[in-house]
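pinned: reference chain
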Amino acid sequence: MFRLNYILCLTPIILFGTIGGFFYAYSVSVMQGLNTLPEVDAIHAMQKLNQGTRNGVFLFTFLFTPIIALSCAALLYVKGKQAAGLFLLAAAGVYFGGSFLPTVNINVPMNHALEALDPASLSIGEAGPIWSAYSADWFFWNTMRAVMALIALGLAATAMHVLQRETDDVTGAQTA
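pinned: its structure tokens
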């Protein structure tokens, strides 16, 4: 029984870590590198990066993380592991409100607007302000997505800790 409970906590931990790490990597490396390019090249490169991100692995991780976390929270709660279930519920809520919604409502529309541009037809004078505004706003919201996904990761890890403590308390094991 504990193994299933363990998996119900571990699965969201892996998903929050994966998506949080993805957003984190963009903030600390990808955007930093793009900002060193000439603006026309940065726009073109970001267009290609965004196209590459639209793949099954990313979409599955991004879309199903809150659903899986919520499902695991509900199962734990129903199985009598209410504290762990509530921490996972909080993790799902933080991810949904802080990572999922900003992606759908802010970052993706920004990406679509950037993708509509033809970098080859932009002059240096036109590309500079476009990239500068895009990069600053996108970086802010992406960093926010990373932070919120990593907070969700911490909440999911807390669920695992609480689950372990509940199990130790029931079995009479010593807790450290």
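why pinned: Helices lie at 2-34, 39-53, 56-78, 82-115, 124-171. Residues 2-168 form one domain.
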